[in-house]
Amino acid sequence: MKIIRQSSLGNIQVFSFLLFSATILCTLISNYFFNIDYCAKERIYESKEVSTQFFHHFHLITSFACVILIALQLAFWNPLKLNSKRIGKRFRFNDRSVFLLLFTLLWYGATYCLCYLLKRILDDKTCNRTHNSVSGHFLFHSFYFIAIPYWFLTIGRLHNKQMKEAEKSSSSTSKSSNNQKSPKQKISKDRIPTMEPRHELRLIKRLLTENIATFLMIILYGLYTYSSYVNLDKTWVDGFHSLRQILYGLILSFLSLYLLLFVTSKCNNLDKKSSCFKLVLSLAGFWIISILLLSYFNTRIPFKKFERVLFSLCYLFLIYFSVYRSKNLVESEKIKKE
């Protein structure tokens, strides 16, 4: 309980590392004592109509739609009630949310490049006629199963931090105006408002209860969990992947999540230009490594032209936020303090 009160995001990072370590250990033990290179069912390869393909991928499409809807809701999410109506009118948080959401999306894109590369390097065609070495389904579903709570807590924390700073600035402004009206009154140093330490469990409770829109997010996350479970169950039961391929997909997912949480924990102040630049450079380095590895092994980038253009636009927004928006945020904070 003490760990949770200190940092729930830190707990998620530790949890992802434990999952990564446990999956590696499970893979090593299973490799020596069990047969993990078999299909639960022999598949029949036949051409399918478009309607049949849509129904076949229905749960995957549902999970993907839930991720998009949750991301859109988080981009406009104001989870905590503000004590002052004046603060509520000035309050803007969407750009920070969008930065975090797009950063995670692009991070997953680079991770999938590695997944696509490993499929060809390992050259495991068990349960399929083509390269099938790493399960992309298990990579996707397990990644966003943890990434969505990470979004929820990170954006909620940033919202709580900015709200406290706005309320502190508002209270100090009102006090200064009162002091101008009564100059004889002296301000004691002990009466200067200070930010109270964050109580983690209390903050999580507020994030879950103070905005009714959060209930919709919880429903979407529950739907994502259910559709992911059904899709992953079909992936195994219908013989699309062997246990080895499933474990490899989970290992890559948990490793990517741990690195994502590690990088963002080191550069967690999105008001500072230096933190934003470090995140943008880390993301660029991850993509450069992935593309160089794909090029070295003569493997194409696993995205269509539209997806590449979309990723490029998302990255341009991250650069814009780092160069211009973070600078404006810092300057506005200085003006408030003055």
Account of the 3D structure:
The chain contains 12 helices and no strands. By secondary structure, the protein is an all-alpha fold.
Fold blueprint:
Layout lengths: L1 H5 L1 H26 L16 H7 L1 H18 L9 H6 L3 H29 L13 H46 L18 H10 L3 H25 L5 H24 L6 H24 L8 H33 L1
Helix pairs in contact: 2-7, 2-10, 4-7, 4-9, 6-7, 6-10, 6-11, 6-12, 7-9, 7-10, 11-12
Structural class: mainly alpha
Q: Write down the overall geometry.
A: globular
Strand residues, percent: under 5%
Helix count equals: 12
Helix/strand order: HHHHHHHHHHHH
Intertermini distance: 40 Å
Largest sheet: none
Mean pLDDT: 80
Low-confidence parts: 1-6, 84-91, 184-197, 332-338
What's the count of strands? 0
Oligomer: single chain
What percentage of residues falls in helices of 4 or more residues?
over 70%
- Radius of gyration over C-alpha positions, nearest whole angstrom: 24 Å
Short description:
This protein is mainly α and 338 residues long. The chain has helices at 2-6, 8-33, 50-56, 58-75, 85-90, 94-122, 136-181, 200-209, 213-237, 243-266, 273-296, 305-337. The two termini are 40 Å apart.
Key terms:
mainly alpha, 12 helices
